[in-house]
Amino acid sequence: MKPVLEHAHIHGYAVMAMNSINMEMVRAAVNAAQAEHSAVIINIGMGQMKNHAHPEDMVPMIRRLAERALVPVALNLDHGQDFTFICECMKQGFSSIMIDASALPYEENVARTRLVCEMAHPLGICVEGELGHVGQAADGDDENDGLYTEPGQAKEFADRTGVDALAVAVGTAHGNYPKGKTPKLDFERIRLLKKILNMPLVLHGGSGAGEENLKKAVACGINKINVCTDAFGIGSRSIEKQLNDNSEVDYMHLCMGVEKELTSYIRSFMRTIGSSGKYYFGEGPVSGNE
To answer: Which positions bind Zn(2+) 2 (predicted)?
Structure first.
């Protein structure tokens, strides 16, 4: 993931990181990336893996799809908190780890994040940390600026931990926002964080954040945007619609329908955040007009 994010950081765009828990979701992400000449990051949350998408099953499948792809495909552990599980993901072949100790006291966050970096970097594994706390939309955490990332502290955090990318709290939240609500992002904070840190910045809670917000966040310095809730919602609605249209539809076609809908959504999202057209097949990153 590190080369992908460094390219996005240097050239001013963002890469989509979509939470994926089965073959159809991964294939949709990879096929969309190929069609858009874009890199993509496959996110799997720690809870998702413990409950369903077990790494020993998912990683070989993702690796096969990634190896056949002509664009970069990274595999990232999302919101890793359990050290035993983090080590297992490293062992299984994840290309990056997000260590989330953001709900803990600052010094403990520093210590845990630094330890993961010390374990991961010798293995060539990229590490994302989080400072500030991206909470839940249902709890109104997007409006709690007491949870936002403080730029001066962020610089110290990055220096002391050695993270390759930093997830920042700037006004988004996880989950579904109340109906009709679009979050208000602190764009000036993003600009200041980018100026002070000069490193890839990550926006969690990309679902429901609003297209214009996403475009402006990227322009201010965001380089990775996580999406989970919207992708899962597309899958659920696709199945519901297909069953309403034909109650006799078989399961295989339900899965194919979900994959088609997700592919379309991901392609559109990639265009919104500027990652489309950044990779030519067989030639690596575009080096000209980006």
So the answer is: 100, 130
